[in-house]
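Example 399.
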Amino acid sequence: MPEEKSLKKSEKGRFGKFGGQFVNEMLMPALLELEEEFERLSQDSDFQNKFEDLLRNFGGRPTPLYHAEKFSELVGCKVYLKREDLLYGGSHKLNNTLGQALLAKKMGKSRLITETAAGMHGVATTIAGDVCGLEVEVFMGVHDIERQPSNVRRMELLGAEITPVDIGGGVLKDAVSDTLREWASCSDTTHYLMGSTVGPHPFPEIVANFQSVIGEEIKKQILEAEGKLPDAIVACGSGGSNALGAFKPFINEEVRFYFVEGGGEHLDADNSAAAFQLGSPGVIHGALMYTLQDEDGQIKPSKTRSAGLNYPARGPELSHLYETGRMNASYAFDDEVFEAVKTMAETEGLIPALETAHAIAYTLNHKDEFEEEDVIVLNYSGRGDKDLETILRYFEDED
Ligand SMILES: *Cc1c(COP(=O)(O)O)cnc(C)c1O
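Predicted structure in complex with pyridoxal-5'-phosphate:
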């Protein structure tokens, strides 16, 4: 009964109606192998110890939870920043890449392939490949290569091979399709290191699992500092890995979740990356997710000044949290984001990534969402060094 079998398979990895495995038959053996090995290794104490050792002694975990007093005054309640900018590499991405590189190594693979937009995931993947002794090939849209020269050079120095992708719009969503296609032909030696909580099962589950170290630490740290759980957690995102990583350990607790996506210039489908606001459920990159699409179901490219949020879809678990009302989803416009960078820099001496500044802008511009006695955690996903040129140019053009 082959039909029944394939039906059953596509029911795996569902969050409500979202997720699943909508892939070419040729990819199924690779996904199945990955699922089985991940299940086995997540019970394996050698694997867990090695992962924890790398996070701590190589990556620099635990990252601090910082009570930002002056920023708190601006918002009107107590705000803590979860400092993922201090993880080696400058963002939360290393949590996931170290986990998957180690997984690939234990599976006997010799090579990692991945795609990247802002370049941050490419850098984090190359670092993790180096740590685990694996070759790395990074697919990157040609426009993204132009936009992020310093990360391209960083990847080259770290020893990655960079393959430009110029089909379609030459941005991240095209690179993902190319990388999935490539993986089908070389999965015996190669692991596809998915960069966010997207893609076919088991990727969303694996990435969320490795990133949930963020939320586990928040829980411990906030209990120590405040003696109670936070009232709310605010996180930016596209695929949703830093947001889910922070939210996951609190899903069954009374903690409000605010997810902030890239509003771009205007809230219309040609000038935005706000897939929850402007999109609808559709199949993209192997799973059913909220995505930007036209009436014929053609995926629409997203648009925002923040390369790391320039992805048209939202991961299956995030899509489910949104659709069931467990998570509030909103957006910040590019202009608000640049202003938020400036505010954070001047009040706290921190230069956030443009992605992170979406969460900052939302918090500043929606003070009425928070009560004076609220304790909120803002997941400070990364630092802004990579965006410095873009930020300075914005304010020069303003003058
Ligand atoms: C990549 C990136 C994001 C967006 O990715 P998610 O998977 O949605 O977390 C957010 N912030 C920073 C700093 C990033 O580098």
